[in-house]
Write a structure and sequence with these properties.
With about 200 residues, the chain is α/β, with parallel strands linked by helices. About 40% of the residues lie in helices and about 15% in strands. The protein is built from 8 helices and 6 strands. It has helices at about 25-35, 35-40, 60-80, 95-105, 130-135, 155-165, 180-190, 190-195; strands at about 10-15, 45, 85-90, 110-115, 140-145, 170-175. Strands 2-1-3-4-5-6 form a 6-stranded parallel beta sheet. α5 (about 130-135) links the parallel β4 and β5. α3 (about 60-80) packs across α4. The protein is globular and about 40 Å long.
Length: about 200
């Protein structure tokens, strides 16, 4: 990473198809699936952490990946002159679930977050103070009710909880395109402008 001084840091967490040791899959998903070229045009640094965990990459592996990613972000902020008040995270599918994991682990790092088609296992057992912490972060959620690969229940739960705590949360809850809805979302919605409009208050 060649850091751009005083610039934002954008962190993208990839879907299940990017898990492993093939960095090209993650780069391809970022550029072509999530319209990452729109992010590249901004004055920012981009971090694509590689999840190498095998199998189904379930709860504990996700938590470890989130913790390791948060530690990496802290190291970058410590050693490079990155704007620590403009750190953004977004992710799709598995990466969307990992967005919840990293927000729950290290909410103080982020100016805002975008979570697409994710699921956080055990969401109903989360302590209420965790939702209070999350409510301090502007979040844009995206999911479709006809998604049969990652069910929408977790996102519905998070949205309702965050709204109850007065969070600045947007929810693009569609009823078509199934698990491919985020591909359409990234091309139709002004999420890049929304993301870069946020700055963490110190």
């Amino acid at each position: 990473m060649c850091a751009k001084e005083k610039s934002a840091l954008v962190v993208y967490l990839g879907g299940g198809g990017t898990v492993g040791c093939d960095n090209n899959k993650l780069l391809h998903e970022f550029i072509y699936y999530t319209s990452g070229k729109c992010v590249e045009k901004r004055d920012c640094n981009i971090l694509l952490p590689q999840a190498t965990g095998g199998g189904s990459f379930e709860t504990e592996s996700r938590k470890l990946f989130a913790k390791n990613t948060a530690d990496l972000i802290r190291e970058l902020l410590e050693n490079h002159d990155i704007d620590r008040n403009r750190v953004y995270v977004y992710g799709s599918s598995l990466g969307g679930g990992c967005v919840w994991s990293i927000l729950l682990d290290s909410p103080e790092l982020f100016a805002c977050a975008l979570e697409a088609m994710g699921c956080y296992f055990g969401y109903e057992s989360l302590d209420e103070h965790k939702f209070k912490e999350l409510a301090e972060i502007p979040i844009w959620m995206a999911h479709s009710s006809d998604d049969t690969l990652v069910e929408i229940d977790s996102d519905d739960y998070f949205y309702n909880k965050l709204k109850a705590y007065g969070a600045d949360v947007k929810y693009s809850r569609w009823d078509k395109y199934g698990h491919k809805m985020s591909y359409k979302f990234y091309r139709q919605e002004p999420w890049v402008d929304w993301m870069f409009s946020h700055k963490r208050e110190t």
